[in-house]
Amino acid sequence: MSDIQEATNQLLDISPLENQKFIQVAERHHRKETELLQVTIGATVPTGFEQTAADEVREKLRSSCKISKDRGKIYFDISAESLAQVHCLRSVDNLFVVVQEFKDYQFKETKEEVLKDFEELAQNLPWSAPMAVWKMNNSFKKKKTKCKKTNPNSSKDKINKEQGGKRAERDVKKEFMSNSWDSNILDYYENPAIKEEISTLVGDDLASSKEDETEDSSKGETDLQVLKFRVTCSRAGEKHCFTSSEAARDFGGAVQEYFKWKADMTKFDVEVLLNIHDNEVIVGIALTEESLHRRNITHFGPTTLRSTLAYGMLRLCTPQPSDVVVDPMCGTGAIPIEGATEWSNCHHIAGDNNPLAVNRTANNIQSLLTKNQIQESKPSWGLPIDALQWDVCNLPLRTGSVDIIVTDMPFGKRMGSKKRNWNLYPAGLQEMGRVCRPGTGRAILLTQDKKCFTKALSGMGHMWRKVHTVWVNIGGLHAAVYLLKRTHQAFDHPSGQDGEKGAPW
């Protein structure tokens, strides 16, 4: 064998190892470049709480934040390495990375010209950085899924743990049936009314769906096969000569032509967003598949409050360490659970007059404890919450013992009635005034029955002073969140009553 042949064989023997090292170095370099990317993140938030969400972004991410003209959206700039922290924000529902923003988009006069512009727009957008962030986000989600799948607890164990709550859930279903509520009742508070027109379409006709594959194989092969996508267009404004479905169709077709992706309405990998608000056009790529507001609740009730809205309400009253925070009409416990998660140095008390609601709250607390125990791989020490059944008009709490009251009052639609509210609201406000600490106590109260609440509050001027009102959209209903401050006047017990009997706190 010649010297040249021997050297060649040695080189061939070494090459695979060297090649592997080169690939590893290249991958590390690519990851470093990706993490240094500066991108704009868009987030949808509960309407009315845009400022609260912006404050959280500035506080936790140290990033400037812009509130959109389009209600319910905020935008902020981050480096891609902070992406995991973005997913930990408590006030945002959905996240997307902005491809490009047009603050004053010039629409043509005819529909054909506008749609033609959308087709050309898709070919000229700066897709590379947002797609790099999407891939990074996708790998982040895969890690979370992998952690869940290595959970030693079997589904059988989970079933055994939840058996105690099954009877209550069956009672809830009977309760729903007896009241002839519609099939969307569980989403009553979870689906905010969207005034703009929204369409989800793709460029070509959908191919017939194949059999479902396992999550690992479908997600793991994403980079090796053609990506599936859809385009969702939301449009608000009266001066547009086109519909959202037409914009999604033509823009989606151009996106498909550009990337050579496969269109799929349901089993998509990438969701491209086309948000149009008057003359503002924003193209983005979704980073969340499911709204982040579903993080704490597993046992839903007829009026389950969104966790993001619960966080916004709690943040309005700025809880301080050692504060006693009470939700006297807790429903499924969304407010106290959110409070105990974010403000664990306070003590949270949840109560309701309905035993089913108290049961659901207890089940949601237990589910969250189990989830935390699985994630941390160690026993959970519990949450600073007490849950019990009581009457909001006769609370078993000592006078002046509560620092903060935060609650979602019955609207008189899904729960209670408008007629009953005329007695409930004044009696409830008086009892809340009794247990709330004079001078420093405050209350955050959500209601859609504004007329009744205003009337009840007008008779409580000696105990409550209205500080601020936040207007929100709850399931299509125009509601209000009232921030009240407890006056310095001590509660005057009615003659013959001391208000302290049977009070455990």
UniProtKB/TrEMBL annotation:
It is found in: Cytoplasm. InterPro entries: RlmKL-like_Mtase, RlmKL-like_Mtase_CS, SAM-dependent_MTases_sf, THUMP_dom. It comes from the Eukaryota. Residues 155-170 have a biased composition (Basic and acidic residues). Its main location: cytoplasm. Residues 166-287 form the THUMP domain. Gene3D superfamilies: 3.30.2130.30, Vaccinia Virus protein VP39. Keywords: Cytoplasm, Methyltransferase, RNA-binding, Transferase, tRNA processing. Belongs to the methyltransferase superfamily. This is THUMP domain-containing protein 3. It comes from Echinops telfairi. The gene is THUMPD3.
